Amino acid sequence: MAGFRRFSVPEYHKLIEIGMLTEKDSLELLDGYLVEKMPHDPIHDGTIQLVEYAIRALLAASWCVRVQSAITLSRSEPEPDLAIVRGSVRSFLSRHPGPADFGLVIEVSNSSLDSDRDDKIPIYACDGIPTYWIVNLVDRQVEVYEQPSGVSPSPSYGNRRTFLVGDSVPVVLDGVTVGTIPVVDLLP
């Protein structure tokens, strides 16, 4: 029987630092495990651009959009499709954003829908990411998760809202609605 070993975030960083892991490996650290990243198809990548364009228009200069870039959490270093973080692009030249930096994390899901729900919700809730969106291409909707439970036996979000075509999704940062985006603008 094969054994499994969990890695801490500092161990993961060390593997990168010494060259054991490179960008060619196409891995991310999820809950201590090295997990292969999903390949991208045109609809996934194009939707990321749609979402980025819509979100960026609502942001004040004190927030920036990171696209498919690493974030550092307590037991994970995922690379969400988009992360809205406090600060400027220059704020993260020497470190990845951590939990205190986040306003919103977004995953665009077609082939990764089960993983984005089952694996990522507990990871993001555990570290208190305030709002997590799944732009669900399968069901043509946007799922918004709020009120993270933090560390618990089963981290999750206390509130889930589903927005359909015809609805507008509120963009909430630090408890303030900075605008809304029609769901149709976020879908291909």
Architecture blueprint of SSEs:
Elements: H1 9-17, E1 27-30, E2 33-36, H2 42-56, E3 63-67, E4 82-86, E5 102-109, H3 113-118, H4 120-126, E6 131-136, E7 141-148, E8 157-164, E9 168-173, E10 176-182, H5 183-186
Parallel strand pairs: 5-6
Antiparallel strand pairs: 1-2, 3-4, 4-5, 6-7, 7-8, 9-10
Description:
The structure is a single chain. By secondary structure, this protein is an alpha+beta fold. The protein has one domain: tt1808, chain A. Helix content is 22%, strand content 32%. It contains 5 helices and 10 strands. The radius of gyration is 16 Å and the shape is globular. The N and C termini lie far apart (44 Å). The mean pLDDT is 90.
Give a short summary of the structure.
By secondary structure, the protein is an alpha+beta fold.
CATH architecture: Alpha-Beta Complex
Structural class: alpha+beta
Largest sheet: 6 strands, mixed
Total domain count: 1
- Give the C-alpha Rg: 16 Å
What are the segments in which pLDDT stays under 50 over at least 5 consecutive residues? Answer: none
The number of distinct helices, counting runs of at least 4 residues, comes to 5
Could you give the order of the helices and strands?
Answer: HEEHEEEHHEEEEEH
Amino- and carboxy-terminal Cα gap: 44 Å
Question: What oligomeric assembly is this protein in?
Answer: single chain
Beta-strand percentage range: 25-35%
Shape: globular
Q: Which sequence of strands runs across the widest sheet?
A: 3-4-5-6-7-8
Mean pLDDT reading = 90
Q: Which range best describes the helical content: under 10%, 10-25%, 25-40%, 40-55%, 55-70% or over 70%?
A: 10-25%
What is the CATH H-level superfamily?
Answer: tt1808, chain A
Based on DSSP secondary structure assignment, what is the total number of beta strands? 10
